[in-house]
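input
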Amino acid sequence: MIKENTITPRSGWGFLVLNVLMFVGVPLCFVFGGINLDANNTLIGVLLMVSGGILVASAVVMLAGFQAVAPNNARVLLLFGDYQGSIVESGFYWVNPFLSKRKVTLRIRNFETGAISTPEKKDAAGKIIQHKTRTASRPSKVNDKDGNPIEISAVVVWKVVNTAEALFEVDDFEDYVAVQSEAALRNLASRHPYDNHETGISLRGNTTEVCNQLQLDIQERLDKAGVQVLEARISHLAYAPEIAAAMLQRQQAQAVVAARTKIVEGAVGMVEMALEHLSRDEIVHLDEDRKAAMVSNLLVVLCGDRQTQPVINTGTIYQ
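output
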């Protein structure tokens, strides 16, 4: 593993003044050199001419050492392939002109899994002929723990925290983040059921726990790339179209059963309360058969899914 070496180069303002003076001194050297050559001061004239040439070359080379680093950006410095360090603080600097400098952004970035990324293409001269593109996200189809096909996608928020590892440990750290996040999401979806009616974690019922686990899984895969995962959230979760209708019927049946259970519990409580009030206030005395009939009638009225039609008994309660 390559360790990041954070450095703070020398300020570029003093070198900028020096560079300007060098460019100003170049024509002066040539002018005075020409004057001395015309006055037959050959040695002085030649020295001034050579000094002017050296100043020109030095001033031009010195221009390559100036670096302006914006906030939340970094520069990785290489000297003939040897890693020298990383500039992570914003400012105006001057470094060795022979250092190659690679820009890395430290800003927070996000993407949605399922998008297809196309890398940039360059010609033989190194000119970019096709920029990097990324298609719209499409949910990934995967089987959950119960074997049901589902569609799932997630939004991952991340940032680079180690510039050396991001550039030198993996080939393309942006593509690496996308591929590993997709793999972690598929693995997580296959470990949990879409909906669990027993005790346990499900994708639909335990969103917070699932998202926290997804963030840990992605972070474990991206540690070697110098990337920190700030957040991972499921953005789309649904059954696959081929079983969506069947699963909807099952959910509707479960909802009906749950509703009927609540209705029966409420009806039983109301019947119990009615019998208790009749007995306590001694409104009417009912034997066991009359109580059973009353309970049956009340349950039919309270639990029925259609409006009941009352029948008035004009005789006694025993007729």
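quick obs: The first helix runs from residue 12 to 38.
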